[in-house]
């Protein structure tokens, strides 16, 4: 395939399980060297789409090509050129950190000496060299995640696919994983990831799709999606003791203050170009929120505007 042709191309991609449709007609392309993300809540169709791209689940209908090859007829050739970081770690806990990489490399027919050298390089890359001779079961969650990423790189893949790469990790571990992934991106490795963390998508993705109900709700860079669907700033208003019905009544009194207004079960969101001006108008109307938070708009706001619910529901 030529360097300027899409690395991944899907046309009207559908996946059904009996009467249930997990993916309902997805079109997308991913370019070489791009960091591309699938953003959305559980059940949106992200992981199912990833499984089809990774050639472990056949599409029900539609066309899907990876590295210029058909995923149905050339799945073995495609899988040999992919690195996969699954949602759950599948490391061999009875082996050492170093042995996990070497043995996995042998599955790809990599010679033993080469596998050992590559394992040493990868452990240094993910900052686990000092743990090489430790059993995997002794590692923290963040260390296991980094080892899984190292394992996915052992065959020097064209594409690395990560399904919810930092779920369950503490903030420090998450940022270390982000740092390693950013370095891979700088090396020109194509990254495909799913996440329901808005900050992760904004940090790592050049471009992404927001999925809901098996469909793509919108596509673009993080900045493009925010500019397209919401205002620059957001004001979060909370009112002590107020329930959904009371918040709806309060929201009616806020009409016209901002371009967009979203009453949620526990707060009201005002989407405004100038948060300070919007807050001043709230007080001018005689309303006294118990707390006021002014912040920049995020991808979670985009998702809320597109689907009517938050990413973590």
TrEMBL record:
Residue stretches making up the ABC transporter domain: 8-238
GO molecular function, one term: ATP binding
Similarity field: Belongs to the ABC transporter superfamily.
Pfam families for the chain: ABC_tran
Species per Swiss-Prot/TrEMBL record: Stackebrandtia albiflava
Protein name: Lipooligosaccharide transport system ATP-binding protein
Membrane-crossing segments per the record: none
Keywords: Antibiotic resistance, ATP-binding, Cell membrane, Membrane, Nucleotide-binding, Translocase, Transport
The keyword Ion transport is annotated on this UniProt entry: no
């Amino acid at each position: 395939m030529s360097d300027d042709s899409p690395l991944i191309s899907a046309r009207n991609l559908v996946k059904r399980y009996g009467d249930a449709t997990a993916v309902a007609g997805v079109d997308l392309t991913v370019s070489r060297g791009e960091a591309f993300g699938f953003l959305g809540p559980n059940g949106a169709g992200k992981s199912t789409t990833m499984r089809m791209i990774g050639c472990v689940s056949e599409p029900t209908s539609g066309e899907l090509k990876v590295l210029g090859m058909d995923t149905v007829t050339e799945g073995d050739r495609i899988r040999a050129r992919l690195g996969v970081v699954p949602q759950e770690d599948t490391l061999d806990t009875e082996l050492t950190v170093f042995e996990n990489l070497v043995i996995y490399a042998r599955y790809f027919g990599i010679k033993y000496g080469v596998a050992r050298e590559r394992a040493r390089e990868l452990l240094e890359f993910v900052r686990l060299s000092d743990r090489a001779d430790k059993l995997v079961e002794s590692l923290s969650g963040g260390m296991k995640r980094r080892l899984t990423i190292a394992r996915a790189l052992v065959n020097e893949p064209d594409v690395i696919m990560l399904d919810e790469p930092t779920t369950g990790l503490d903030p420090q571990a998450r940022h270390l994983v982000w740092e390693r992934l950013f370095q891979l991106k700088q090396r020109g490795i194509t990254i495909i990831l799913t996440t329901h963390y808005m900050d992760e998508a904004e940090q790592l993705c050049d471009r992404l799709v927001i999925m809901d109900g098996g469909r793509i709700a919108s596509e673009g860079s993080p900045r493009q999606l925010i500019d397209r669907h919401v205002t620059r700033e957001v004001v979060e208003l909370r009112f002590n003791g107020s329930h959904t019905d009371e918040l709806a009544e309060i929201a009616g009194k806020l009409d016209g203050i901002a371009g967009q207004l979203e009453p949620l079960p526990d707060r009201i969101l005002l989407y405004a170009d100038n948060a300070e001006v919007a807050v001043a108008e709230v007080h001018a109307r005689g309303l006294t929120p118990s707390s006021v938070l002014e912040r920049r708009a995020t991808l979670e706001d985009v998702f809320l505007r597109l689907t009517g619910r938050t990413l973590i529901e």
